[in-house]
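Before the break, one more example. Copy the sequence into your notebook; we will annotate it together after we see the structure.
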Amino acid sequence: IERSPERCANLESLKSEFPGVANKIDVHQGDANARIKELCHTDWHSKRAVLFLDPYGMQVEWKTIEAIAKTKAIDLWLLFPLGIGVNRLLTKSGDIPNSWRHRLNLLLGTEDWYDEFYKVEITPTLFGENKETLIKAKMETIGRYFNNRLKSVFVGVAEEPGVLRNSSNNPLYLLCFAVGNERGKNIALPIAQHLLKEVR
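Here is what the structure looks like once it is written out:
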């Protein structure tokens, strides 16, 4: 599912690269959040799936993740935009533009992230108290917070996401895994955790 017509055309070319499975490749142009929620609201009682979400940035909305979890049938691999998204919007001063706050609220599904990522230090002065907002969120804090958010809606989540880094060794994405089906949890989680060790 891809919004860009040009990228959709590139994805369509996969059919010629993999002719043996060409009939199993369906490319849809449009908003992935809307399309996935539409798919999730069908009957999943006798179906199972694995879904890989690979956003270019912070396009995946928490409501989409919730819809996936509610199927209780879909296992999710998700590239979470740690360094290229969330960390860039967390200003040192804590003064975050409303548009950025809104984007983070959509991604994380709550406004509670602010209190998790920032702290207010109060120091006494001759003229009263001085309040200063300081960022307390390191990359690990942000990653742990998001993984805990996944745990709030999925039956199982890999404890240690993979970290995808750039050539300077800075974290760009977390590769997260969440299990949708209770009966498959004990099989899926160990496999995912083994694979994620190769990413760290």
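The two ends are 28 Å apart (CA to CA). Residues 163 and 193 are 13 Å apart (CA to CA). Try to locate both features in your own notes.
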